[in-house]
Amino acid sequence: MASIKDLKKRIGSTKSTQQTTKAMKMVSAAKLRRAQDAITNNRPYAKQVGALVTHMLSAPDVTVNSPLLDRTSGSTEETNGKRVLLLVVTSDRGLCAGFNATIIKLAARWLNSEGRKYASVTFSFLGKRGFDFYKTKSGFIVGDFFEKYGGKVTFKKANDLSNAICKSFLDGEFDEVKIVYNEFKNAVLQVPTIEDFLPLRPKMGTATEAAPSENVIVKPSADAVLGALLEKHFAIQIFRVMLESQAGEHGARMSAMENATKNAGEMIKKLTLQYNKQRQAGITKELLEIISGSESSKSQAAS
Amino acid sequence: MKLTILSPEKKVASAVEVSSVTLPGSEGQIQILPEHADMIGTLETGPFNYVATSAGAPLIGVISSGFFEVRGGDVTVTAETCELSGDIDVSRAKSAQKKAEGALTDPELDMKLFRKYELKLQRSIIRQHVAAGEL
Q1: Which pLDDT band, with edges at 50, 70 and 90, does A205 fall under?
Q2: CA end-to-end span of chain A, whole Å?
Q3: Taking every pair of C-alpha atoms in chain A, what is the biggest distance, in angstroms?
Q4: What Cα–Cα distance (Å) separates residue A277 from each residue in A126, A264, A271, B93?
């Protein structure tokens, strides 16, 4: 059994841990608020650009054949001999419960089931955690680690990253690009998701909404507008993924730290109880010794 | 006519009732007045302004590459960056101008980089002009 001195030490150190986790929880909460705002601010923009792409594609006179587009919808099953890039989006730092582990697990599961159908699978990484885990593993090609795009999420970073990915796609390095990331649902719930990124498969059957676009004036030309739109579209997608992942990270860390704080509190309670019990036991023992000592000296004096 | 200006980082204007919008279209400046036909177009970097019916005086700002859509008489602008004249960081624009000017003096610059810095210079100058209320 631990001595009183040890117990006191442990209570002290648990208390300071609790302080740290509490502070981290507060920081994450503040960051989460900001990240959530960023998502809310970005959504209308992303939606509008998405709508514009749909409008443009559904216009009857537009017959753009961008390599970024896949108009033969429904050929998703055709994976023979294709090379795929999977962008694994994790956080740079840990201490956020299962946030990174679920992504890593999902990527591994995907590799074992879907990944086998492809000729080659390349993993690229955004976020240090995923890279650290996978850099020594085998069964796929370890691709780029986009370290410089980590940290604070800005649209510029998303744009640069998207350009880099689009470029390697257009250069023919990959036939498909997918992203695995944590979709932000709310502060305590992140859903690990795998999403198709490239090529873009336009959603057909939205003709009813796009019907009035028949008499639209398009300047400078449909091709130019669509080209520019597509370029933006991918950057926006990446930006959204980065924002969602960032918000998810803070959410996960917040709840992880809250749990840690609670656990530390319980630990302190338990240790304090034990400490008090032992202290009391010590006092009782001393008292017993004194009493028995005095009793024996009394009985000696009496005899 | 309602105007909405969206950028990836914030909503600059949301369904503001306006009487006129002037934008830097990629084929020259374009002014949109109420009852304009449906239209989709691209935007270049440049100054823009709009006249809110409630204010009277035009609000000016800088926009960099984006799109606009006129649909059913409402205008939606999606811009990569969009700043109203009050929000422009003049000192940042000035330092960007210096940097771009410095980079442009390099004779080794290839075409792509040259164009990049040229655009950067252009943007920083437009920013300063708009901030000073000269455009």
Answers
A1: very low
A2: 41
A3: 123
A4: 52, 20, 10, 68
Supply the CATH number for residue B96's domain: 1.20.5
Give me the interface pTM, i.e. the ipTM.
Answer: 0.74
Clarify whether A166 is annotated catalytic. Answer: no
Instruction: For chain A, give the mean pLDDT.
Output: 84
A205 touches chain B (CB under 8 A): no
End-to-end Cα distance, chain B: 24
pTM over 0.90: no
How many Å lie between the alpha carbon of A146 and the closest alpha carbon of chain B? Answer: 21
Q: Scanning every residue of chain B, which has its alpha carbon at the shortest distance from the alpha carbon of A56?
A: B40
Q: Identify the pLDDT of residue A209.
A: 47
Judged by CB atoms closer than 8 Å, whether chains meet at B42 and A225 is answered as yes
* Residue-number span of the structural domain to which B119 is assigned: 89-132
CATH code of the domain containing B48: 2.60.15.10
CATH of the domain at A120: 3.40.1380.10
Statement: residue A276 has pLDDT above 90: yes
Same domain for B82 and B23: yes
d(CA A109, CA A143): 18
Q: For A171-221, where are the alpha helices, taking DSSP H only?
A: 207-210
Assigned token pair, A102: 């679920």
